[in-house]
Design goal:
The structure is a single chain. By secondary structure, the protein is mainly alpha-helical. Helix content is about 60%, strand content about 0%. It contains 7 helices and no strands. It has helices spanning about 10-20, 25-30, 35-40, 45-65, 75-85, 100-110, 125-130.
């Protein structure tokens, strides 16, 4: 594609791919050894669709990860929810004694979410009774 002559499928694919990777029209024109104005006139559709198609592939991959059973699914799901559903990380605001670490740990132990004793209170085990 020197001198802005015939367009062909391989150049169209290359333009779309490079646009998807975020290259500017000027950089793509240099890589293809052509004029920027010719590139933008001839490959208008590929330049416009490149980033859209690349983003769609990334979103599809992220969505599959976020809805999967892989350990990384939680991270992908959290990212998705923050980016797409407006989720935010918030810190609990202390109000009196309610947010003391010992109280939180004790409550988690009572609910069976952490092993007993992590909250700093002693627990009696079968070994202790002997």
């Amino acid at each position: 594609m020197t001198n802005g002559t015939a367009t062909d499928l391989s150049h169209a694919r290359q333009v779309e791919t490079m646009a998807g990777y975020g290259f500017t029209s000027k950089a793509i024109a240099i890589a293809l050894d052509t004029d920027t104005a010719f590139l933008e006139r001839t490959y208008r559709r590929e330049l416009a669709q490149g980033a859209i198609k690349a983003n769609a592939r990334v979103v599809e991959s992220l969505y599959r990860k976020a809805t999967g059973d892989d350990p990384k699914s939680v991270t992908a799901a959290i990212f998705w929810l923050k980016a797409r559903a407006g989720w935010q990380e918030t810190q609990p605001q202390p109000s009196g004694d309610g947010y003391r670490l010992a109280n939180i740990l004790s409550q988690l132990a009572d609910e069976g979410l952490i092993p007993p004793g992590i909250d700093g209170t002693a627990t009696e085990t079968d070994d202790d009774r002997d």
